[in-house]
Amino acid sequence: MAKGADIELVAVTKRYGAVTAVDGIALRIPAGTYCCLLGPSGCGKTSTLRMIAGHETVTEGDILLGAENITDLPPARRGTAMMFQSYALFPHLSCTDNVAFSLKMRGVPKAERRARAAEMLARVEMTAYADRLPAQLSGGQQQRVALARALITDPSVLLLDEPLSALDPFLRVRMREELKALQTRLGISFVHVTHSQDEAMALADLVVVMNHGRIEQAAPPREVFNHPASAFVARFIGGHNVIALAGGLPIPAPPGGARHVAVRADRMMLARPGAAELPLSGTVRSVEYLGATVAVGLAVEGLEPLSAVLPEAAFFADPVHPGEAVSLGWKPEDMHAIA
Amino acid sequence: MKGRVAALALASPLALILLAFLLVPIGTIVVVSFFDYDSVRMFPAFVWTNYEELLLSPITWKTYLQTLWFAAVTWAICLAIGFTVAYFLAFHVHSALMQTVLFLICTIPFWTSNVIRMISWIPFLGRNGILNSALLSMGAIDRPLEFLLFSDFAVVLAYVHLYALFMVVPIFNSMVRIDRSLVEAARDAGASEWQVLRNVIIPLARPGIAIGSILVVAVVMGDFVTVRLMSGGQSASVGLMMVNAMSLLQYPAAAANAVVLLVVVLLMIAAMLRVVDIRKEL
């Protein structure tokens, strides 16, 4: 396998006519990193990936891979390989021929390219299906063939465009594990575009949260979850209550004059009115039993809807019901100021 | 049982139409091809003489070869033009509106009858026609080009003009269904434009190519008007043979020829379908 190399985006901008899809982003992805580009649709994550792949021209800025500026190189000469959304396997070619495609394009003799494709298929455990057409494979099998096809070029970076979105939920979790295991084994960087925060949290060494063509936060998943850099990040990754500090709330203001605070839903404290010294009072909107935890939806006058996630046992020790009044609060150290 | 009756009832209109307008006429032609005839009428009979006379005549073989030659040349040119136009429309015109507009422009010739379209070539290509006069006055030639009209060239030109669109439509239809990410995946794997065309687009456009080929070959094999008008009587076709036989009231002879032509065309189509599976396109 090729040695890993750092990817560096320097003030990369992509404009489509008057629309700015990616707005001067700077990002460094160290070699051997599993990086997830996370964001809602239209946030510029796919454009960013396609620019790294060379399927989209860069309007301004540079993309470096290792020591080389690859901004204007054609896709196949960058040392990257792309796995497309819904895989884009050639429907008229067998698995072997799909995997061997790039070798054929380079003029590798038939016997050699078939042998190398067979080796690659063995690596993704698809040897038994070598002669099948893509239409005869399940979604997970197609993904493995697509991976083999991308990896046969020995890329130093693998780019994955929503690789799990075509799969059903069970398979999605399994293929997610396979992707992570593969990345660990190969030791190259994976750059994975997704709009699912679960997927990003589960896979990534580096989560890059994007919105409106800009990077909101680029950090390891634990840091993103515990210290979201903005209200957008806190809302998008979920599991947080974002509370606007608009006058008169009986909660202590954090230092630094922040306008929002974020509190993890699982750090919310809930009690019967008057039973504990909690500063806010509200009403239970909904109760969702989630197995290990119970999510309680709360309405507090003057605030957007909040939620509290309680351990199952703690909730059922004194269950609340929709419509009941509760008091709520959190420890000061669980409150996190955001811009 | 009720579902079966309903299914049969739903299928019956088409079945009746096919029976009345396809199977019965073909059956009639097959029956008549065995009839005997003299110079004024035909008699019900079962004789092989119509087929004998047809198949043992060198003129028949020559005419079939001539027709096959027209079909082959027309097919090759229509394929080249049709593929190129369809490729341009499908891959180089990016707005759907522009695709529709250009597509409609391709169909403009079909807004007039094909006889008029053919006849309009005559003043253009004739000895004193527009093309010859223009070339003469430009000094490009010093006497009129004779091969332009009433020649095999004119016949093939008219065929291509008439039927190139039959090739464009199905190939375009196949091409617009090709997922654009396949082209990107091929480029990602290092394919040049030419390699993308050969390894991805042509294989995936094959059903459209097959359907267009069947349409073009079938109409050219059965044509007689174009050959009569554009060759000025100097070339023959199988269709023209049949028309001539009918004008002499030799209906059984024409019927026998029709049966032979039908078999030949069906064999050609069967051969094409062996190469390409068009089922997924229908």
Automatic annotation (TrEMBL), chain A:
Keyword line: ATP-binding, Nucleotide-binding, Transport
Occurrences of domain ABC transporter (ranges): 7-237
Keyword Translocase: no
UniProt xrefs under SUPFAM superfamilies: MOP-like, P-loop containing nucleoside triphosphate hydrolases
GO cellular component: ATP-binding cassette (ABC) transporter complex
Keyword Ribonucleoprotein set for record: no
Transmembrane segment boundaries: none
Entry's Gene Ontology molecular function annotations: ABC-type transporter activity; ATP binding; ATP hydrolysis activity
InterPro entries found in the cross-reference section: AAA+_ATPase, ABC_SmlMolc_Importer, ABC_transporter-like_ATP-bd, ABC_transporter-like_CS, Mo/tungstate-bd_C_term_dom, P-loop_NTPase, Transp-assoc_OB_typ2
Entry similarity comment: Belongs to the ABC transporter superfamily.
Protein name: ABC transporter ATP-binding protein
Automatic annotation (TrEMBL), chain B:
Occurrences of domain ABC transmembrane type-1 (ranges): 64-272
Main location: membrane
Annotated SUPFAM superfamilies: MetI-like
Gene Ontology cellular-component annotations: plasma membrane
Membrane spanning stretches: 68-89, 101-125, 145-172, 208-231, 251-276
Subcellular location: Cell membrane
InterPro entries recorded: MetI-like, MetI-like_sf
Keywords for this protein: Cell membrane, Membrane, Transmembrane, Transmembrane helix, Transport
Family: Belongs to the binding-protein-dependent transport system permease family. CysTW subfamily.
Protein name: ABC transporter permease
Native species: Neoroseomonas oryzicola
